Amino acid sequence: MFIGHFGVGLAAKSAAKQASLGTLFLASQFIDLLWPTFLLLGVESVKIVPGATKLIPLEFVYYPFSHSLLAVAAWSVLFGAIYFAVRRAVLPAVICGGLVASHWALDALTHQPDLPLTLGGSSRIGLGLWNYPALAIGLELLIFVGGLFLYLRTTKSSDRVGSIGLWSLVAFLAVVYGGNIFGPPPPSVNAIAWTSQAQWLLVAWGFWIDRHRELRVV
Ligand SMILES: [Zn+2]
């Protein structure tokens, strides 16, 4: 799942109004932001296998530090705790922690049974929706559009940048998502790792948008 995680981040703004969209993106995509660094360090591994699933040609061989249930629970608590330490606000801290965990839950729907429960054990979870492209894409678009709707209901642009920044992000995510689905398989694991690192720019983009939008008064 890709834009679905950003959809959840957008949606969370309606519940965690003080948190910047950048922070919410950072939380909802956190374990996918750790993953490329673990790949580049050789701590985790992935294989490009055309046909691995109908939608995504990847075999997630080993990624317990970013994507095991146990590690995600720890990242989630850590993220929430750091947010609380910096901002001193309980609700957004809890929501940010929940966003980190939401990533795993959504991945569990789309991935094949490759998500580990613990760091060393052999149990793997995954419902495998990536083998049912219409369902997987439909679900992801639904989450993204729903999240965008909630975000637009919660905030309005305070200047042109707030509107242009948001809609260009939506267009950019749509193009990248389309490329992931309909484009050729990635040329190498290194290419996957470096393009995934570029997702940090999306977090920065979220912070930038948030500074040019304000909460709607209800
Ligand atoms: Zn993931």
Secondary-structure topology with pairs:
Layout: H1 3-12, H2 21-28, H3 30-41, E1 45-48, E2 58-62, H4 64-67, H5 69-87, H6 90-110, E3 115-116, E4 124-125, H7 133-154, E5 155-157, H8 160-182, H9 189-197, H10 199-211, E6 213-215
Antiparallel strand pairs: 1-2, 3-4, 5-6
Helix pairs in contact: 1-2, 1-6, 1-7, 2-6, 2-10, 3-9, 5-6, 8-10
Bound molecules: zinc ion (ZN).
Low-confidence segments, given as residue ranges, are none
Mean pLDDT: 97
Shape: globular
By secondary-structure content and strand pairing, the structural class works out as: mainly alpha
Q: What is the number of helical segments per DSSP (H or I, 4+ residues)?
A: 10
- Strand proportion, as a percent range, falls in 5-15%
Distance between the termini: 33 Å
**Ligand catalogue:** zinc ion
Please state how the strands of the largest beta sheet are arranged side by side. 1-2
Helical residues, percent = 55-70%
Largest sheet: 2 strands, antiparallel
